[in-house]
Amino acid sequence: MEIKSERYGQAVILRCKGDLTSDSLEVVGKEVQRQLGDGAMDIVLNLQEVPFVDSLALEYLLDLQDELIGRDGQLTLTNLDENVTKIFEMTRLDVGFEILPDVVDAVKTI
Q1: CATH 3.30.70.270 fits 2-109, yes or no
Q2: What is the model's pLDDT at position 16?
Q3: pTM listed for this prediction
């Protein structure tokens, strides 16, 4: 998993590249915690280059969302490809997350 970050005030956009699976969660988790430690309140995950998300990654995202809500922040997911969109729809998590078509829309809502 490759992650690039951009900071906009108290929000950070993490652009992920590669499968979001149990194998990559350590990398994602470390970057998220680093950003939270640096004062980020809101996390935008740009999943444009993420072709697959497994069940452990979905569980991680749910836990992260709860953590951010507890800090008065939010988690937003953007640019889901067709396969990842289907995964969220099949698990009915598409209604549990803020999912927007692109990063620009996400930044506007923060």
Answers
A1: no
A2: 96
A3: 0.92
